[in-house]
Design brief:
The protein has 387 residues and is of the alpha/beta class. The chain has 20 helices and ten strands. The strands form two sheets. It has a six-stranded mixed β-sheet, with helices on both faces. Helix 12 links the parallel strand 4 and strand 5. The structure holds iron/sulfur cluster (2 copies). One iron/sulfur cluster binds next to helix 2, helix 5 and helix 6.
């Protein structure tokens, strides 16, 4: 045990486990540019002094993708150590918000009175939570999906809000718990028992912090409820990029593949898939501090895709991977397949995404006429708090 462990109680179990049980087999370092640079988790756990903010800062170079945990024969969790170090860094007052201004501004706008809206009809116990990206990049698809879900769940509500995953991943744990806890507390008080999410990151956040509210992806729901996608795509070959947030969620992975098969597409699996999928590059917001590590993930996908289009079921992954290799969001295949497969799809970018979100909110308010509605009213201090 290192000399500094006494001052790092929250890290001690992770450090001890990794120092004592990591065999330095190298399974986790193979695909990870961060570990390739700094060494095995054991080398990092023994060679760095994590009571020092300078050393703590390296945790922001880890994508928090959890591939290391997925491949570790010793069942170690290196990624949890790096997340915990981020929290320590924030709690110590060393976090520089300005380095992450773009993503924190995005999150703050998502939880603001201007962009948030909750519409809960009479008898609502299930809500659609489309997240931030889909309503901005694909407002029409989001609306059509909501209407389709309504056919199966007539009292379906909708929540336009941000799950605050950026704060969670940056280590702003107190802020995250406050913002997300307020949301789930409100939903529970209103009788909401289930959330249907389109975004894998929102899934993960509800799964681990949902305050008893069940979560399911819309992909599983759509597949289980027999929604029929157009199937004029006979034989077109695609690869599937599983998002790292869902690497352990076999039912979602199967549902997505089921939907693609029903659409007539032929899936040629990528080498890294399912439990061993790789990050798209967006994970952990590494691109803000180490863009080369973020790009290294994309390069793996580019090699594996080898010119066939990839299908992703995360708007963030789709946007990131599209920079290196053609990547289609499954919702585009469901709702506008020809344009998606012919490369003629128009996907909005900022600042138009913000306009789209406002227009979608307006249409939903006009259309839904809910029994209960609200916008988020976090105080200025709450929405700006960095801890
Ligand atoms: S979480 Fe991902 S980026 Fe971080 S150490 Fe593990 S494999 Fe590497
Ligand atoms: S896979 Fe596990 S045992 Fe092997 S080097 Fe990584 S952390 Fe150590």
């Amino acid at each position: 045990m290192g000399a500094h462990d006494g001052s790092l109680p929250s890290l001690t179990p992770y450090l001890r486990d990794i120092r004592e049980r990591c065999t330095e087999c190298g399974a986790c370092t193979k695909a990870c540019a961060f570990l390739s640079h700094y060494g095995t988790p054991k080398a990092i756990a023994t060679g760095f002094d994590f009571s020092s903010p300078r050393h703590q800062a390296i945790a922001y170079e880890c994508s928090l993708c959890s591939l290391c945990s997925a491949v570790c024969p010793e069942k170690l969790d290196p990624f949890r150590l790096f997340l915990e170090i981020r929290r320590l860094y924030v709690d110590g007052g060393h976090f520089d918000e300005s380095a992450y201004g773009a993503i924190l501004g995005y999150e703050k706008r998502g939880t603001s009175p201007l962009f948030s809206w909750y519409g809960l009809p009479e008898g609502c116990d299930t809500v659609f939570f489309p997240g931030c990206s889909l309503p901005g990049t694909r407002p029409e698809v989001t609306l059509r999906m909501f209407r389709d879900l309504q056919k199966a769940v007539p009292a379906l509500g909708i929540v336009l809000d941000c799950c605050a995953k950026p704060s969670h991943d940056l280590g702003r744990q107190a802020h995250f718990e406050h913002v997300f806890g307020e949301m789930t507390g409100y939903l529970s008080d209103q009788g909401v028992k289930r959330v249907l999410v389109a975004c894998p990151n929102c899934f993960k956040i509800f799964q681990h912090h949902g305050n008893g509210i069940a979560v399911q992806t819309v992909y599983e729901f759509i597949h289980a409820n027999g929604f029929k996608a157009e199937s004029k795509n006979g034989g077109r070959e695609v690869g599937v990029h599983d998002p790292c947030a869902l690497r352990s969620e076999v039912p979602v992975q199967k549902a997505v593949r089921g939907l693609l098969s029903e659409m007539g597409l032929t899936i040629t699996e990528l080498k890294h898939r399912g439990r061993r999928t790789v990050c798209c590059g967006e994970g952990g917001m590494v691109g803000f501090v180490k863009p080369e590590y973020a790009k290294a993930w994309g390069a793996i996908r580019q090699r594996e895709a080898s010119d066939r289009p990839m299908v992703a079921y995360c708007a963030g992954c789709t946007g990131f991977l599209n920079r290196v290799s053609p990547t289609i969001h499954i919702v585009d295949l469901l709702y506008r397949p020809e344009a998606a497969l012919n490369g003629k799809l128009k996907v909005a970018r900022a600042p138009f995404t913000y306009w789209n979100r406002l227009m979608l909110k307006r249409r939903l308010r006009q259309e839904l006429n809910p029994k209960t509605s609200r916008i988020r009213q976090l105080s200025r201090a709450e929405s700006q708090s960095s801890t």
